[in-house]
Amino acid sequence: MQKIDLAVWPRAELFQFFSAVSQPFYSVTFRVDVTNLHAYARAHGVSFYYALGYLVTDAVNAVENFRYTIRSGEVWLLDERVPSFTDLKPGSQQFHIVTLPKEGDLDSFCRTTRAKSEAQQTFLDQSGELDDLIYFSCTPWFDLTGCTNERDFDKDDNIPRITWGKYVPADGRETLGMCLEVNHRFVDGWHLGQFYQHLQQAIDALKI
User: Fold this and answer.
1) Judging by DSSP bridges, how do beta strands 74-77 and 2-3 pair with one another?
2) pLDDT tens track for 37-69
3) CA–CA separation, 183 vs 52, rounded Å?
């Protein structure tokens, strides 16, 4: 983790500008082509949800501005962010939250995440709930076209909230709506574009 010197930080002016805004959070929703990922998940017998979370985590960590945080009034750059999933046990209507580091390859991560989710008996293990997370959620019952998230209002909160919906077929491809809620003090549209490019390229590069 690296402490940021605001005196020489290229983003300092933008950071200060959006720090004066009473509500600096915003969200965007866009479509992601997941055709290749769906085929990969079926072929490898892994969870599409966990697999997409793995790739989204890589895309988040590839863009520096997603990894900023504020601790005791100071800006820090995290080494990486950690995925934190909402999840459902089979037959349950009540979700729980599964948090674990992104380790190993895609297939092994999916197996580890499933095992932890199945074994977890509590709604939330707060020992793993820090400011270095990515909050993931999914609405697989309908096509997502927009989303907001609950939060305690804290302008220092830079944890990305990322939600996606049901994948839908069109013209021989499968796409889904993905919503990102971010803090404008750190993340601009350009950074969202970089995230999208990293994610789509990683999906397209999967070998079935």
Assistant:
1) antiparallel
2) 999 999 999 999 999 999 999 999 999 999 999
3) 22
To 10 degrees, the CA torsion angle through 56, 60, 194, 140?
A: 30
Left (φ > 0), alpha (ψ -120 to 50) or beta: where does 169 sit? beta
| C-beta separation of 81 from 60 below 8 A | yes
First to last CA, the chain: 36
Residues 130, 18: Cα–Cα separation, whole Å: 24
- Angstrom distance (rounded) from CA 25 to CA 158: 9
Q: Which residue has the tokens 């096509």?
A: 143
How are beta strands 161-165 and 133-139 bridged, if at all? parallel
Residues 6+ apart with CB under 8 A from 41: 47, 48, 51
43 φ/ψ angles, rounded to the nearest 5 degrees:
-65, -35
Quick count: other Cβ atoms within 10 Å of Cβ 154? 10
**Beta-carbon neighbour count of residue 81 at 10 Å?**
21
What would the pLDDT profile of 165-189 be if each residue is shown by its tens digit? 999 999 999 999 999 999 999 999 9
Tell me the one-letter amino acid at 174.
E
Work out the angle between the directed axes of helices 189-204 and 35-44 (0-180°, nearest 10). Answer: 40
